[in-house]
Amino acid sequence: MQSSVEVLRGDVPGTEYRFKVLRFGPADIAGPSAYLQAALHGDELPGVAALHYLIPRLKLAEREGRLAGRVTVVPFANPIGSGQVFFGEHLGRFAFGSRTNFNRDFPLLPSDDTSGLPGDEAPLPVEKRLKARLVKLALGHDLVLDLHCDSEGLSYLYIPKPLWPHMADLASCLGSEAVLVWDGGSDGAFEEAALSPLVSLPQDSPEWARRAVTTVEFRGQVDVAPETAEADADGLYRFLVARGTIVDAAVAPPAPYAGLAVPLENVEMTYAPTGGAILYHVRPGDRVRAGDLLCEILTAPGEPGGAHEVRAAQDGLILTRRSHRMTTPGDDLLKLLGTRRSTTAKPGALES
Fold first, then answer.
1. Which cofactor does it need (predicted)?
2. Residue 192: which of 183, 202, 204, 203 has the closest Cα?
3. How far apart are CA 234 and CA 56, in angstroms?
């Protein structure tokens, strides 16, 4: 294993940011290469925990000569967001300076040539230089996995349409309970940046079958435990074996994927009609029918009309819900995977 540290100049004199990059296998090894990063949203840590258990297995495979392709791992991909603590609360989703989601506005390139991306000397905010650096690290790999989590939720994947169902093996290996298949754009998310050099390929190109690009959502933010982390690492390892990056005869091929796969436009984003305290009547994994009560928003507890009901727009599966219990008008409350297109579906990412 080769360990190096990437350094980013801060936006004011006397500051800088650092993050570690781990590389396994020689650069010229011929097998499928893989890039895995975690904590792009600095307060989403299940992926970090999974990599803690995966890295020793990568070291062992390297020592035993079982690496067929190079592997690059970035355990903490966002040192800016990882350090954003406000009055004791870790807030790693949006950059404090620009209020931009750290997983938006990545550069979208037509090829794997990253020579035109800005370097650390460019007169740009550090968050933009970080995004350029991550794209430089990721492009050129065959398998690109961006490890995230939701607020509270099931384990699920975002997968670009040209890569589905070719990537059903990853969903099976990780035990994902749902796959959201997206088409078009995702507001420049890292996943879209990794896909960008491939978009000119025809749909029937054999290249799609050997590639993987995805955002992995490892359940919820508090699901950081040895048991789940080790299980997630096992799934990642099985996938790398299945794709030929690692050789391990003891690992069986993945079973057919048995979970849901739905178009992104079938996701019902359910919003708070008013501010107040949330009383959820459902949890991730529940099946609901149209009209079922999902939650109540309490504005005047115990008084007539003081509880505002939020009901299901259609039949489906509760995929996620927010972990906070005080909401404001228009706030995202939950994601419901429906059986038809949502009437509120819109292009781009589901959430800000």
1. Zn(2+)
2. 183
3. 12
- Dihedral, CA atoms, 246, 224, 195, 351, nearest 10 degrees? 170
**Location of structure tokens 């739905």:** 262
Q: CA-based angle 151:126:132, to the nearest 5?
A: 80
CB count in 10 Å sphere of residue 89: 8
Place of tokens 């940046």: 193
| Single pTM value for the model | 0.98
User: Are 333 and 349 in contact, with CB atoms under 8 Å apart?
Assistant: no
Residue 66 confidence class, pLDDT cut points 50, 70, 90: very high
What does the pLDDT average to over 326-342? Answer: 97
CATH of 2-258, one of 3.40.1170.60, 3.40.630.10, 2.170.120.30, 3.30.420.270: 3.40.630.10
Once rounded to an integer, what is the mean pLDDT over residues 270-284? Answer: 98
* H or E segment to which residue 263 belongs: strand 260-263
What residues does 67 pair with on adjacent strands? Answer: 246
d(CA 61, CA 247): 8
Largest Cα span, the chain: 70
Element (H, E) at 73: strand 71-74
Q: Is the dihedral angle over the CA atoms 109, 114, 120, 123 positive or is it negative?
A: negative
Which part of the chain is CATH 2.40.50.100?
265-338
CA distance 64 to 51: 20
Which helix (H) or strand (E) element contains residue 240? helix 226-242
- The torsion angles phi and psi of 51, rounded to 5 degrees, stand at -65, -30
Provide the token pair at 36: 């895995």
pLDDT, tens digit, 9 for 90 and up, residues 182-206:
998 889 999 999 999 999 999 899 9
Mean pLDDT of the chain: 97
Angle separating helix axes 226-242 and 46-63, nearest 10 degrees: 50
CATH number 3.40.50.720 given to 265-338: no
